[in-house]
Amino acid sequence: MTSQVADGATPDTAQPIPGQAGPRADRLGSVSGTAGPAAGRPDPELLIAASVLLAEAAHTARRAGADLTGALSSWRLGLAAVRRPGWALGAAVSCAKALTSPSGLGFGANGGLVGELARTAGTVTHRRPAAVAMAVDAFALRIEAAAVAHPNLDSALARRLTDAMVEGNRWKALRALHALVERLGVTRALTTVSPVITELLALLGLLDENPVNDDFSWVTLAGGVPTTDPFFGLPRSLLGYLDPGPGRAERTEPDSILAKVLTTSRNDIVSYINDIGALGNHGLVLLRRVECADGQVRYVLLLPGTSFLLPSNNTPQDLVGAFNGFVRSDTTYTRAARQLLRRAGVPDGSELMFVGHSLGGLTAMNLAMDVELASTYRITHVITFGSPIDTKRPADHTTRVISLVNKHDVISTLDGRGPASPHAVPAGWVELTWLDESYDYPLSHAPQAYSDSLRGEMAPHRDRVNELIEAYDGEVVGNQPYMLRDK
Questions:
Q1: CA–CA gap between residue 246 and residue 243 (Å, rounded)
Q2: Contact present, 276 and 284 (Cβ < 8 Å)
Q3: What CA–CA distance (Å, rounded) separates 412 from 29?
Q4: Measured between alpha carbons, how far is 364 from 482 in angstroms, rounded to an integer?
Q5: Residue 202 and residue 381: Cα distance in Å, rounded?
Q6: Distance between CA atoms of 402 and 465, rounded to whole angstroms?
Q7: Helix (H/G/I), strand (E/B), else coil: 405
Q8: pLDDT tens across 221-273, in order?
Q9: Backbone torsions φ then ψ of 475, nearest 5 degrees
Q10: Please, are residues 137 and 54 in contact by the beta-carbon 8 Å criterion?
Q11: Which end of the chain lies in a sparser environment, N or C, as judged by fewer CB atoms within 10 Å?
Q12: Which has the closest alpha carbon to 305: 289, 287, 326?
């Protein structure tokens, strides 16, 4: 059982200094609590620290390449050549040598029209700049560090795959992936590599022949929010065209199963998770009205996750909506949820708590990022489970963010802060993590898996969350389901 708190008040673990590798027992220590590397294995703390230094060096080399390219292609150099031709020729030769020499930046031209054309030519012809080589080594160290806490990554078949990705040998990687799937099956193979899926995608972007998808890798290396996809380099703005609905919310009545579950609902994280599981993934959400013990009326909005039956359907809870919700904050799901709050007549200034699973958790954070919504209501808590939310921040700094993560759940790591990431929990957040018996995806991602863990060995996490949301203790006086539509 592990947890990580970044609220500065009662931290469970010390926090690293920004930009440096800090304590990582929550993500790299052993499950039994005996942190530290196995005998004969490198210390994961040192591997992560080295990866941070390599990442910084890679970004510095890349910027140096852009500066030299800019100087070499500048009109100022041409003007200087008229006045001092000898000096200009020497400067141009020195810049070109530094940009192309294996002992320099190793074909490190980038930036601007000339630089990007040169970089494209280098990518297509498999010229690997020094910056890319250092970035690859940084990702390789992250993978090695993750293997300490996830021994399945160190199996022969998994090692074949990760080594091939680090080499940039796609055909060898495909053969290794085929062997892994043939041996373990699709779900177990996916779960095996899930702790480093972001690193593998970043390596793919860096080392393939496509020059337009590299930004995903560089942003991931820096711990930022990628604005392109890792395969084709398509900008995230395109997703807006695939998910353009204005959003619509319609009151509806619960079916018999949901109605039965709601009779036992209360202010308890396990109860909220069970309620979300009963809502399903076909467009239903739930707005709860609570007369709290302190006399105030508060509201809770429950937001389920994605339906995987079709890439797109007539509700916001589809795969297109999931991708859109990951990279953008204004989505059909958030627009429909805002309409719900208006139609339900939630008074301005009311205190609200959002609880969401997977895409629902992303939507909860996207709603909390909405400055207008945060100005209209007091968004006190955002609770997510199985959601890759770490690249998002609420508009109101007083909003308490609580993230529950089963470390076998591949979806939670898609924000780039998986077990091998050097980046800390965002300041002010509470993140509670664990490993449970639901190893395979999608079982590890299901609400039931989270509910079972919190009712079992992770009961202290349940108590912690319930303590943080005790202001919502009281009598449930309204449970209103809404059907959300794209339009």
A1: 9
A2: no
A3: 18
A4: 16
A5: 33
A6: 8
A7: strand
A8: 887 777 777 777 777 667 667 777 888 999 999 999 999 999 999 999 999 99
A9: -95, 130
A10: yes
A11: C
A12: 326
